[in-house]
Amino acid sequence: MFKKSVILLIVLSLLTAGLLIAGCEPEEPEETGALIDDMTITREESHAAAVSQIRAGDLDVFGFNVTDPDLYDEILADDEVDYELNYGSYSEIRFNPWGPEFDDGVLNPFSVPEIREAANWLFDREYMVEEILGGLGSAKYTVLGTAFPDYNERYPHIIEEIEAYYATNQAKAEEVITEEMENLGAELIDGTWYYEGEVVELKFLIRSDLPPYPEAGDYVADLYAGLGFEIERMYRTGGEASPIWIGSHPREGQWHVYTGGWSSPTIPRDQGSIFDQMYTHRVMPFPLWSVLEEMLEDFPELNEASDRLARRDFSTMDEREELFETALWESMKFSNTIWIMDLAGANPYRADIKVAVDSAGGVGDPSWPYTIHRHEDGEPVPGGSLKLAVPNILVDPWNPVAGSAFTYDMLATRRALGDVGTLADPRDGLFWPQRIESAEVYVQEGLPVDVTHDWLTLTFEDEIEVPLDAWADWDAEAQQWITVEERFGSGGTTAQRKSVVQYPDDIFDFPLHDGSTLSIGDFVLAMIMTFDRGKEASPIFDEGRVGEVEALLESFRGMKITSEDPLTIEYYTNTWYMDAEWNVTPLWPTYGTYDWSGFWHMITLGKLAEADNALTFSESKADTLGVDWMDYTKGPSLPILEERLETALEANYIPYQPTLGEYISADEAEGRWSNLKAFYEEWGHFWAGAGPYILRDVYPVEDIIVMVPFEDYPDPADKWFFFLEPLDAME
Q1: What are the strands of the beta sheet with 192-195, ordered from one edge?
Q2: CB 3.0-4.6 Å disulfide test: which of 182, 303, 487, 624 passes with 296?
Q3: First to last CA, the chain
Q4: pLDDT of 180
Q5: Does 442 map to a domain?
Q6: Residues facing 569 on adjacent strands
Q7: At 304, which helix (H) or strand (E)?
Q8: Measured between alpha carbons, how far is 96 from 566 in angstroms, rounded to an integer?
Q9: Residues 6 or more apart from 43 whose CB is under 8 A from it?
Q10: What is the pLDDT of residues 181-207, one digit of tens each?
Q11: Is residue 52 part of a domain?
Q12: Which residues constitute the domain of residue 601?
């Protein structure tokens, strides 16, 4: 205990220094990190039950859009419930295109493009919107979002022609289907289709938990039944349906038709790449998409236009329009999927909750974990528990390279547990700097690119030369970079876009969940993995990755780390976007189609397991090898990953040693492996991320996950609260 004289001396010293003034209180320390003490995400399939629980105070947020008119009225009438509308969810009728027969000899009519195309005339989209959704949506004929610029601003004239041509005409649909069924050798006998003496039965996989299904699924099934097909209706939740439509190979014939749904996580300001995702093999790493490569041989115009739009292989808006026109019409003819409606839905939550709700993605968009909090009279109230429900959770295995692509899983994996270089504004889809300090964008003179924000600069150049020593490809056998000079020759090459990103001086002090700090090795491994898995010489070669890497190399021209202090990275490509903010390439260490954060040591665990053929990152390769699809959070993957951790710890292992040996020291490797082991012992999983929350518990049987704040997360808690204000409030 201090003596009184000592206390007096301290007080006098503080007064002398001007630090203790009568009537003034010391400033409260700035609140950092997450504002919720523990967050539970659970499954609730019933939208009615979710709304009821929110009204009763048993649930805080429902992470999906409510489209039922009666439930919407309940939300409007309750002062204890708030909501935001979003327009980014959309519904499809997806066909299995394999055939004409499955492996068991069963006929698949939908292997014929003309039969798939005829569905556009068969379905009455307006009827489904009005009768099933009660008008809370809009009929959707093409892949373009009806609420977004490419549909309603740039190309409405093309859309109008398509909608007129494919307007409901059930007599025409029946005529086409009849002709093509007969060409397949089928016979219509007494109103029922037969093939080689057997009734033609269609397996309809109908979602039971995803409006407008099951009603819309039954409507479609009834139409095909009316044409003479026997129908098997398989009602499944999303989790139950996933192993069937996305987990099996199309040739197995486990389904003919799937009633699916998608959502745009952020506002799609430029939908040029959506054709590659939905109609080709180059983006989605699943068997259902891999088989499209061969089928596209009969649709070369769609394949070319889709590829060029994804790579932005055009110089003027007129060229872009020509490519869009081709892609739109040809995709309607291809019709591996039929789009039926865009949903206008309400994301409901308790009135004492504030959270950013993306105009497209709704609750669960990339900014939600940075903004969600309780409030009282508009002032944040830190702490407490929060319960968020979604229609599905823990649908597929979680791994940061090619794990679950379900929106509800990524709500945690990609967002709350991860981090990003730039963050999309939920109000307009433009990017803001999250981890980077600044950016410079250079584009070729004449390209239609505009800039909105002042955190970056935009410059037009007559020619953008790529440095000869920039990294332009990857040699998987030598485990070394291929330079621009080696790939393109001594004359080098040019690019249509150059992105220069500078990170803060203290970026390598940025904390990770396991006690490590970010390092340049994290950035370089992510660059390597972008290419390595698509190269046959790689020990983790994945055939499903080849198309994506080949498509990338069509436009990629090089990247170069020009400074390590501060970290500065240049990126050169012929792919560009109309918004300068979208032309910034942070190269923050992320993986996979959906940009999951990952760091070199935790990613390497999976690499070691896959190299031994013990586990695989992707589902398609897991099926090929007959091993488990890797899961960093639960199940039989954990002991296998633990074994690799012990091996790596003992060997002080550094992956891709010929290259990463220059960036990762032995001391760093030792620290990383020790930290990851301690993390696993404490938390029981290997998802060592960097986001505002840490994964505490996973309950796969109950479909529940629990997250708690990452205490060392450095950002002010209110850093992104301006996303909660309308755009005009910032002007």
Answers
A1: 187-189, 192-195, 198-199
A2: 303
A3: 56
A4: 98
A5: yes
A6: 501, 561
A7: helix 300-311
A8: 50
A9: 389, 390, 391, 392, 393, 394, 703, 704
A10: 999 999 999 999 999 999 999 999 999
A11: no
A12: 407-715
pLDDT of residue 23: 42
Give the three-class secondary structure for 239.
Answer: helix
Looking at 325, 342, 359, the residue that finishes a domain is 342
Q: Are 674 and 516 in contact (CB under 8 A)?
A: no
Which of 286, 311, 342 marks a domain boundary? 342
Quick one: which of 92, 97, 90, 112 has its CA closest to 255? 97
> Which structure tokens are listed for 648?
């790596």
Helix, strand or coil, per DSSP, at residue 252: helix
Give the CATH number of the domain where residue 175 resides.
3.10.105.10
CA 516 from centre of chain: 26
C-alpha to C-alpha distances, 54 to 209, 389, 707, 717, nearest whole angstrom: 18, 10, 20, 25
- What pLDDT is stored for residue 593 in this prediction? 64
What's this model's pTM, rounded to 2 decimal places? Answer: 0.79
Q: Note whether 415 and 335 are same-domain residues.
A: no
Does residue 435 sit in the same domain as residue 534?
yes
Q: How many residues does the chain have?
A: 731
> Is 302 part of any domain?
yes
Domain total for the chain?
2
In angstroms, the Cα distances linking 325 to 105, 120, 309, 449 are: 38, 18, 11, 21
Number of Cα atoms under 13 Å in the Cβ half of residue 496: 20
What confidence score (pLDDT) does residue 728 get?
Answer: 67
Q: How far apart are CA 430 and CA 619, in angstroms?
A: 32
* Residues of the chain where predicted confidence (pLDDT) is lower than 70: 1-30, 265, 364-365, 412-414, 593-594, 728-731
Residue 29 maps to a domain: no
